[in-house]
Structures are given as C-alpha cells and as structure tokens.
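Q: Sequence in, structure out?
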Amino acid sequence: MCSSDLVARMERVHDVVVLGSGAAGLVAALAAADDGADVALFEKADLVGGTTAISGGVAWVPLNPHQEPGSDSREDALAYLASLSLGRMDPVLAATFVDNGGDTIAWLEQATDLEFSVVPKYPDYHPEHPGGHPDGGRSLDPGLFSFRRLGPWADKVSRSRRSAHLRITDTTLGGGTGFLDEATLAHRQEHDLRGCGNALIGPLLAALLERGVEPVLGARATDLLVEDGRVTGVRLAIRQPDDSEREEVVRARRGVVLATGGFEWNPDLVTEFLRGPMTSPASVPDNTGDGLLMAMRVGARLGNMGQAWWVPTVEVPGDVAFGRTRATLLNRERTLPGSIMVDASGHRFTNEASNYNALGGAFHQMDPVSFGYPHLPAWLVFDGRHARRYGSFGTPAGQPVADWIPRRSEEHTSELQSRLHLVCRLLL
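A: Exactly. Output:
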C-alpha cells in the first residue's frame, strides 16, 4: 500500500472542525452542534481548557441579562471600548460584540448548566473613561460547577493548583484573600466544586459530551487545507501512546474554527509581534501560535498583534508549573498600603494599584538613552506590617513571611524592621 493510499484512508469529514478547547473553542463547537452540524473538536494538549481553565473565568459582557435594567446602554459600551482602543478598534466587530453579547450569555445559560452572576462591586478596569461603570455590572462570574458530573473527563481538564476550588470573589483579584476556611474548602473538595476558569470550562464540556462531541486530545494541527481559495480542512499530527505522531487529514464541509490560543510561548513570535518584552508567561505552554502560523501561511490578514493581556508576575523559587518556575500573578500585594514598586535604580515608576493589564505599559517604557527597558525587571518592596496584616504570596495574614523573600538582617532594631525591608523581583 502506498503512502497516499494510507493518507486517504485516514481522512475524516465533518461539517465543522474546531481547533482548541478553551472557552472560545468550546462555545464555537457548541454553537455549531446546536445548529445541527456534525462537529469535530481537536486539542493539542493532553488536557481540555487551555488558558481559560486556569484563569479567573470572568466574562466581561455589557448589556448582559444579569445587570440592573437600564443600568447600561449600547452607547456607553461602545464609547468605553473606543476610549481604550487607541484608534485601532474595528467598529463593526465592536458593535457585533456589544449587540450580541447579552443574547450569547442567555443562550449559554439555556444550553448548558452555566449560571452566571454579576461580580459584586467589580468596576470596569478604567471606570473613569467615557462609558465606564465604576459600580460594575458587566463582569460575570460563572459560579461553581461540580466536576463529578464529568465522570472520567473531570481529570482531563487543566486546573490551577491554587484556585481550582475558588470563586473569583475568593481570589485576590476579586477582593478575597485567596484562602477558604476549612469547612468551605472541605465541602468544595468533597463535591469537587470548582470555580473560576474551571467553572466556565466544565459546563461547556459537559454540554458537548451530552451532544456526542468528544474532544480529541494530543491532536496538533499543522496545516490548513485550501481548495479554490477556501479552507476545506486541516492536517493534524495525532500523538500516539508511544509518543510518536501519526498524520490525519480532516475535511470540513462548512468551515474550520481557529481557537488555538496565543503565541506567548513562541519566542520568535513574541519578538516579532509584541510591543515590548514578555519575560514570564503565565498561560499554558501549548500556546505557541500554531493557529496563527497556519493562518499566515494561507494569507490571513492580521490585526492588533502588538496587544496582549499583561500582568506583573513573581517567580517563586521551587514553585514549578509546566516544567518551569511558575509565574505567580501579582494582583493583590502591590495594591495594598505599605508596598511600592521600584526599578533597578530604586525609583518608584508607576501607580501600583493600576489594573494589571494597563500596568504592562509602565514596564514597557523605553529609555532613549540606554535604549532599554529600565523598569523590567522591577522589585516590590513592602514592610513587615504589610505582610502581617495582608499576607504575601501564598502566606496567610499573620503568618511568617516566606523564607525566599529577601529582608533586612535580624540585627536591625524592631523599628527598622517595620520599615520597607522585604523585596520581591517582578517580571512581566
């Protein structure tokens, strides 16, 4: 049998092929299935969920059905988005998002077990901008979902070791401490109740499984197939039990959806596209830009490639994820009284309480003299009172500060020890 005969035998045909199993890919697959399509869903990693699964899971949706009636408007939402776009927003796409976001939330709650609720008092990140909402209402929490409903698939979803059982309001980003009391934690662990990104992925996956759509894991897309100027399928490398790969061609009658995540783990693409350095990715390492590279090869138009979702991070010694030191998000300690951020020259360079995404701009300020980025890396400096009152980097309030955090010598007086003397190195 020749190799072309073998490839022909390996071809499959579906109506819709979806690449990627984060929220975008799962929702796309669910929408196609509910429209009567025969759907195939492929995921490069060995686990479902992508970066969504280890995220806070919050959906920002203006004019959503859980807002107070009359508290939002199309004009406000579009004005807010435009105020943050630096003139790069596609007005048609923005209007499509605003006009359909609320209906999408309503459909998801009907089609799945998702039960969204407004995150209390969670303001827009720039509430001072035109159309911004300082009292919140647009940010939705997926709540908690019991992964016992997923059966064997419960162990096939990526999860954060620290936040798997937390709701966004329990985390430091949502105003909590990042810790649960023993009774609440025990209850959630007993019933495998997961929050944040897992609470978004779980119901979506359950709905697809109920419709007979099972993700194929370990399936790396390598090329889009094009005929007469139209994408008609995809070539995949399917990982085998012995870690070898076999090629498979999958045809799509109606279309291929690229939901393959970002490119932050691809150093070449980071250097090529991002507006400045990105030194410590906090997402899943499978985000190497596969979908982007395939799209580029068939002539796709690109847009907003210099943009990313930025956040300052700390790499805690000995805390490993994905085979490298974990990037711990710095969302709480920097915002509280008794801490400041300084650069290598010891100068404070920004408002530490700025929202984490916008804060990336402070790290990307370039010095025209040194021709470098003087604020990256930076250091968070905080005092003993700050650490005792609020806790720090996984250490609860009132507990001793972790040994890996540098501090002044114990020979200093208690007065000195109450001053700025604890330091953490920050990356982006």
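DSSP finds twelve helices and 15 strands in the chain.
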